[in-house]
Amino acid sequence: MVAIAYPFLISLAAALVVRDQAPKPLSFTLNKHDKKEKVRPNPTTRAKINANEDVRLFANGDSYLINLGVIDQNQELQLVLDTGSADLWVDAAKLSDTSAFTKDGQKFGIEYQDQSIVRGEFGTSSVWLENGVEIKDLQWALATDVELTTGEIPGILGIGKGINEAGYHSSGTTYPNFTQKLKDQGLIASNSYSYYLNKLGTATGTITFGGRDLAKVKGPVATFYPSTTDENARFDTVTVSKFTSANGGSAPGVEAILDTGTTLTYIPASVIKSLKVPGVSVDIRGTYYIGCNQPTTKFVSFWFGSTEIKVSYHDLAIPETDDNGNATGRCYFGFQSSTPEEGYTLGDSFLRGAYITVNHDKNQILISDVNFTDTENIVSI
């Protein structure tokens, strides 16, 4: 009897050890920080604008910041989380010690949609998550030339697809970026993440790597498998079936990119007009405004098949600021116009109303209406 029991106990103990070592999701707070974002004028009206005209072109939105220890665990910075890019870069001027950063001789350069430009050099080092987890030998860029249009930041953590890395189009190759490294080192089970941006005016949101918070999901879930061959293949791209509004407006849908790094949502001018949201006006630049005092009980709905994502009129009134960051008393409408040539983007003014999961391993995007709650029910994916 003893001889039979021991192997059973040993096997059971081994199974428990293996189970304990299975990767678990990593969830972190995203701290919100005010940012001014340059609003893109309607491309069809740009040519009519006097280049010397003194115009206010800034929407006062949020950056979503994640804490990372860079090169040294105690050298902690708050970096902007960006799903629309795929590289981590840090401004060298924000680091007191770069001696453990090993340069690899590759140049880094990226230009963002807001016309910010960053240049530097790739290399590797360890970085540390807020819970003390070390990511070893991560490739990232030490930036030495930083020209930003959105105010001063220490760096950006891009967590998009590898084919959206800055060097991919010139080299045709990718490297294991942040989320891929988390998986490769056994820290999470899949190259995936889920994000909850929370309501407009709140202080924090959350990002979960390798997992999904079921407590944040409300209603049916829409599933997308983005194209891997068209011009938007490098982005997280989904198709909106239709738009509707509380005032009886309705418009056909579009294909659009999901991007936490963009404050506003850019869709066709015809959609904005058809939604019939009261109080929306457009100026000579094609920029849309709305009164700042809007109800929380009326919504614009984005439909993904039978999945409805509701964004309140209140959350579509984005304060305008001048060049010095001072409030002007006016509000941008959370939707601005774009063209097929420039592409359409679902930015933070939409994403706050949704719970999103992106799984790069499966080339899969899950979208649901969001349940605004501090309760968590995180599962591994």
UniProtKB/TrEMBL annotation:
Signal peptide positions on this chain: 1-15
Chain ranges of the Peptidase A1 domain: 64-368
UniProt entry keywords in alphabetical sequence: Aspartyl protease, Disulfide bond, Hydrolase, Protease, Signal
GO cellular component: extracellular region
Domain of life: Eukaryota
Cysteine pairings via disulfide bonds: C292-C331
GO biological processes: proteolysis
Pfam family, one: Asp
One Gene Ontology MF term: aspartic-type endopeptidase activity
Gene3D superfamilies: Acid Proteases
PANTHER family recorded: ASPARTIC-TYPE ENDOPEPTIDASE, BETA-SITE APP-CLEAVING ENZYME, ISOFORM A-RELATED
Family the UniProt entry places it in: Belongs to the peptidase A1 family.
Identification of the protein by name: Peptidase A1 domain-containing protein
Organism this protein belongs to: Diutina rugosa (Yeast)
Lineage, top ranks: Eukaryota, Fungi, Dikarya, Ascomycota, Saccharomycotina
